[in-house]
Amino acid sequence: MNPDVQRVNPPELSPPTGFSHAVVATGTRLVLLAGQTSLDADGKIVGDTLPQQFRQALTNLLTALRHAGGTPADLGRVTVYATDVPDYRAHARELGAIWRELAGRDYPAMAVIGVSRLWDEQALVELDGTAVLP
Q1: Residue 123: exposed, middle, or buried by beta-carbon count in 10 A (0-12, 13-18, 19+)?
Q2: pLDDT tens, 26-45?
Q3: By C-alpha distance, which of 125, 130, 93, 123 is closest to 109?
């Protein structure tokens, strides 16, 4: 847990599942993370299903964050761009399990945005984010 990133979930709002309603950041360094899809080190999309691609995209995002000096607990915001929101919702439990496995339970503020396509036509999902480091 990063004490510079405080999760806020007011009781007046619907209980959050897999996200925080607000995040208060008081750290001194921002890490702006570029959108990550399921590209492997050779620049090829890996995974045929949304959960497979989500796992790789999240791994890529966390790899960039780690190399910038951060951890998943430092994430203040993550945006998910999905080419098929109903498919994303249908896999929500599995995607949540992947998130917890790779990033833990310190959830950032999040949004899922439906898009018609991503830069790589085979990509089903892309994640970007902002982290706050002490």
Answers
A1: buried
A2: 878 999 999 999 999 999 99
A3: 130
- Pick from 21, 15, 14: nearest CA to 76: 21
- Give the Cα separation of 78 and 76 in Å (integer): 7
Helix axes 92-103, 50-67, angle to 10 degrees: 20
DSSP 113-127: EE-S--SSTT--EEE
Taking only the tens place, the pLDDT of each residue in 81-121 is 999 999 999 999 999 999 999 999 989 999 999 999 999 99
Q: Is the dihedral of CA 10, 14, 18, 22 positive or negative?
A: negative
